[in-house]
Amino acid sequence: MGTVFSFDVRGGEPGPVQKALEEAIAQLHRVDEVFSTYREDSQISRLARGELSVEQCDPEVAEVLALGAEAERLSEGWFSTRYEGRLDPTGIVKGWATERAARHLAAAGASGVSVNGGGDVQLYGVPGSHRPWRIGISDPLRPGSLAAVVSAAGVDELAVATSGTAERGAHIVDPSTGKSAVTDLVAVTVVGPHLTWVDSWATAAFAMGSRQALDWLESLPDIEALLITAGDEVRCTGGLAQRLG
To answer: How far apart are the first and last CA of the chain?
Structure first.
């Protein structure tokens, strides 16, 4: 998927947890084989060229495309599984795959799981007794500094995803124009239970711009967000303060 994954796994029986870790890593490699738009022989590339039908692909392809369609509907078209007119579910695959890997480890009995896929994180459980997971949010305007720290205190699952220009430049596309999104934002961090969704919402919100994005994010259940503009203005959803610490 063109990025680095890292695992932090705590507790559980060593044998089953190690086996689950190996399976989770194998799943991620398989996801890359199936969904990569850079591989000419991937199922997504062949599907885009009309060489395969969805029914001929692995069942996960239909699952991801259905999730992408739902993300497009809920974002009123600001999220899309197409790029330059071609099928490209990249925007939802990484979050979905990372969440699935973390869930697999939690199901194997790990008491604390953190899976980081290219800076977007899915958390389950706790890293230690009376100690929650804490995730730092990079300040896009001050390299090496943190804009905030998100805490998973009081919840069994939490995901944190950021979209912006600090790391990869202007890579987010406005689906209505097919060109790089012109927006007042430099970063959007979204927090919620499931990385599949918060990763998608961060991308859509960035493309919208701060004013529309903040109203839209406030309307989503169980979602909080931090938005940073190019003018160094910080805007937050109403409940985000409860997740900081």
So the answer is: 31
Measure Cα distances from 169 to 7, 66, 84, 88, 186 in Å.
26, 29, 18, 19, 10
What CA–CA distance (Å, rounded) separates 178 from 50? 22
C-alpha pair distances (Å), 220 with each of 23, 103, 178, 190: 33, 23, 25, 11
Closest to 214 measured CA to CA, from 223, 205, 203: 205
pTM of the entire predicted model: 0.93
Asked whether the beta carbons of 95 and 198 are under 8 A apart, the reply is yes
Q: pLDDT tens digits, residue range 182-226?
A: 689 999 999 999 999 999 999 999 999 999 999 999 999 999 999
User: How does pLDDT run across 97-112, given as a tens digit for each residue?
Assistant: 999 999 999 999 999 9
